[in-house]
Amino acid sequence: MNIFRLAGDMTHLISVLVLLLKIYATKSCSGISLKTQELYAIVFVTRYLDLFTDFISLYNTVMKLVFIGSSLAIVWCMRYHRVVRRSYDRELDTFRYWILLGVSFILALVLHEKFTLQEVFWAFSIYLEAVAILPQLVLLQRSGNVDNLAGQYVFFLGAYRAFYILNWIYRYLTEQRFTRWISCVSGLVQTALYADFFYYYFISWKNNAKLQLPA
Question: Where are the transmembrane segments (predicted)?
Fold first, then answer.
């Protein structure tokens, strides 16, 4: 554990809390992509297949349970909550996310560190997480105006990955055998996808104006 990974985990956790606050406090999921949330649920379930077999620490176990549980709860609310589901922007959330699933799985079969079930699914989850935000970004661009909580949710998600890049750099410099190149490359791709959003986010913050993305 280092300060960069801790910062990454905390910003990731904050992003989830912000989204849960938006859904449960406002009883609305407007501006949130169900497809992105379903992709994240798949990411966490496939990444943490070792949850009940490999115990690393209490911290790791709790964080895994939090991310799996929260992602499934968010998907359930957006699909089945009698009030929340009415605000879902179904007409704007039309990204063909099955393409992301297929490409990520093929990549995992071809590019992995060990050809075992657990390692292939781990690689799949890393590749999928790198692009899971795409339906969300497309939805926000189509809607134009972005409410504060939805904007903060995406911002903290991007910040989480940026901190993890610093974590990998730190580990590469301080550990003799740090070989998680799949995480590093995928993390760079994921962070790059947020570049446009970050630009408009900081412009709106600087001008104290509502966040708007170009269509």
Answer: 56-76, 97-115, 121-141, 153-173, 179-202
Total domains in the chain come to: 1
Flag whether 65 is in a domain: yes
pTM: 0.90
Query: Are 60 and 145 contacting, i.e. CB atoms less than 8 angstroms apart?
Result: no
Q: Give the range of the structural domain holding residue 165, as residue numbers without chain letter.
A: 3-205
Q: Does 43 fall in a domain?
A: yes
Alpha-carbon span 155 to 68, nearest angstrom: 21
Residue 215 lies in a domain: no
Helices (H), the chain: 3-26, 34-47, 58-80, 98-110, 117-131, 134-143, 148-174, 181-193, 195-206
Q: How confident is the prediction along the chain (215 residues), in pLDDT tens digits per residue?
A: 789 999 999 999 999 999 999 898 889 998 899 999 999 999 999 999 988 787 778 998 999 999 999 999 999 999 999 999 999 989 999 999 999 999 999 999 998 878 888 999 999 999 999 999 999 999 988 887 678 888 889 899 989 988 988 888 888 788 777 667 787 788 888 888 888 888 888 888 887 777 777 76
